[in-house]
Design a protein that fits this description.
The strands form two sheets. Strands 2, 4, 5, 6, 9, 10 and 11 form a seven-stranded mixed β-sheet that branches. The radius of gyration is 13 Å and the shape is globular. With 128 residues, the chain is mostly beta strands.
Length: 128
Amino acid sequence: QVQLVESGGGVVQAGGSLRLSCVDSGRTFSLSAMGWFRQAPGKEREFVAAISASGSARRYADSVKGRFTISRDNGKNTVSLQMNSLNPEDTAVYYCAADQKTGLFSVPSSAWSAYDYWGQGTRVTVSS
């Protein structure tokens, strides 16, 4: 059973940083590609970043490249998203998700439909 719990959201001023974490209480974390998505009010859920099960491959949305870094610790069943240089457009609820179908070393998917399990989300608010 995969259960994902996000933490680390909050309110931050523009230009600031936050680090989101997602813990998987299940036993298959090391076999799952992990992704972060976000949904702003009135907008569709969008891809942010993803990392392969092995940690060897990463993918980022163009809007966050150079500002956000995704990482994972398979020993702690944790995936993190370091967010720097935040701006008001980054305000959203952030969700982590697990994909158990993509190969361990394959580039992870940016499509939300590829992900099998989702957390409840953590809210990030960036004030101007």
